[in-house]
Amino acid sequence: QVQVVESGGGLVQAGGSLRLSCAVSGSGFNIHTMAWYRQAAGKQRELVAQITSSAGTYYADSVKGRFTISRDNAENTAYLQMNNLKPDDASVYHCNVEIQVVTLKYTIWGQGTQVTVSS
Question: Which of 63-100 are b and which e, b meaning 16 or more Cβ less than 10 Å from the residue's Cβ?
Answer without folding.
Answer: beeebbbebeeeebbbbbebeebeeebbbbbbbbbbbe
